[in-house]
Amino acid sequence: MQTDNRRDFDAVAEQWDQEPRRLKLAQDVVAALRKALPLTSNMAALDYGCGSGLVTLGLQPFVGRITGADSSQGMLDVLDKKIQAEALLNVSTLLLDLEQQRLEGSFDLIVSSMTLHHVQDVPSLIATLAKALKPGGWLALADLESEDGRFHDDPTGVLHHGFSREFLTGEFAANGLADVAVVTAAAIDKPGADGTPRRYPVLLCVGHK
Predict the structure, then answer these.
(1) What is the residue-wise DSSP string for 155-202?
(2) Host domain of residue 61
(3) What domain count does the chain have?
(4) Among 9-13, 54-58, 61-65, 119-123, whose mean pLDDT is lowest?
(5) pTM for the full predicted model
(6) Mind listing the pLDDT tens digit for each residue in 169-204?
(7) What are the distances in angstroms from CA 40 to CA 16, 34, 138, 181?
(8) CATH number, domain containing residue 109
């Protein structure tokens, strides 16, 4: 992420799960992933930009093992506490810079939820994630559909105001992924500055290598 526009996720990590809207979004995204993907108990999965691990732990029972990767050590500390509390043996954490296009290992499944809009070069990121898939592996990315910039109350670290279906499917196809599809995984209801309710769809784009 750009150093002059980077949100301090470490500072908010301990309170992150206290927002009911975030919990519901994670549950909705996990439900959409389970519906869209052929999850199996022998899959090695990666949750890229996992935050406090809400999606990571939601997928954990349905894959063989899963790694939660994030650039915030504070968020990973929160996830590590959950892993220890539940004595989970198939979940691990990985600290990395989400903006640097380097990713070691190969995975049967890579997911990411609400991370793309924090990354400057999204096409390069999608290319990196696609390369890290094993043959036949699945990529599944969830983020806001294009919006007018009013979703985030604090724009710090927000580098994109969502993405169009055409952009996502185009980037997946450009990286050789097949059976690319986009669904609406969730919808986030937030009041605008004038108090009027607004609905923000969250897209899920999937494809396999």
Answers:
(1) -TT---S-B-HHHHHHHHHHTT-EEEEEEEEEEEEEE-TTS-EEEEEE
(2) 3-208
(3) 1
(4) 9-13
(5) 0.92
(6) 999 999 999 999 999 999 999 887 788 889 999 999
(7) 29, 10, 12, 20
(8) 3.40.50.150
